[in-house]
Prior knowledge:
CATH superfamily of the domain at 14-120: ATPase, nucleotide binding domain
Number of strands: 5
Distance between the termini: 102 Å
CATH class of the domain at 14-120: Alpha Beta
Radius of gyration: 34 Å
Amino acid sequence: xxxxxxxxxxxxxxxxxxxxxxxxxxxxxxxxxxxxxxxxxxxxxxxxxxxxxxxxxxxxxxxxxxxxxxxxxxxxxxxxxxxxxxxxxxxxxxxxxxxxxxxxxxxxxxxxxxxxxxxxxxxxxxxxxxxxxxxxxxxxxxxxxxxxxxxxxxxxxxxxxxxxxxxxxxxxxxxxxxxxxxxxxxxxxxxxxxxxxxxxxxxxxxxxxxxxxxxxxxxxxxxxxxxxxxxxxxxxxxxxxxxxxxxxxxxxxxxxxxxxxxxxxxxxxxxxxxxxxxxxxxxxxxxxxxxxxxxxxxxxxxxxxxxxxxxxxxxxxxxxxxxxxxxxxxxxxx
Length: 334
């Protein structure tokens, strides 16, 4: 029998890389075409470090695939650098649990696991490009959501101060709309006198000015977001002209998954059964206990349960069966 050994030159063999990303240092691993480990090395998480990492991988051969952990956080810059250099990048979620149990948890092992996941095809998802209008909208929406949440908290704090404040402030601002409340408390002119009343008016005025500042921020951000959304996805722009928000995941009809694939069993999100208005323990008509007059109900109390999730009806009783007698009284002679 003749065995032929074919040697592959280092310049032509396909190299698969794996990177375990961190805030300051990235750990990279290189694999040959048959999965053999060629080396593991650390590189700084800087632009110069990205170039050194790619040159190190290219020293083993032609870099055809790189698996990177955390392409949406610590590995975002490295993923952009690799994509710019023309290297295919796949996103690796996490290390294999069986490998962690057998070998332990370390940065070099995570880098090797990322490379093997990319080479075997277990990790095949393409990372987000993080460029263009979509990334611009995402960045602006981060600032807008925080501004809107802070404005809501500011108004709630102002209402709490009005509720517990002096009587004249409570009578003036109790039932006002948020816009009227902000405009009113921002124009307060506190005068020294009563210590508590003066302090409450100062706090309300500062809260009102803060809410007006946040209103200005929201208007400025909307002026930047609206043209980007209209240019990128005009069909999703509502007729009201406000900044669109994604629908909640619970907007799907009960009993189905959000993608309308298959029915799901009822969970805690279903509405509980309505409570009886009668006192606990007795029924108003017969005076019997609820256990004797109860009817079979669905597990979650209404139409939210699917058709297959129904309780079994009570078993029929024979006509000649006699009722269960209570415990016999022990005679006094015994």
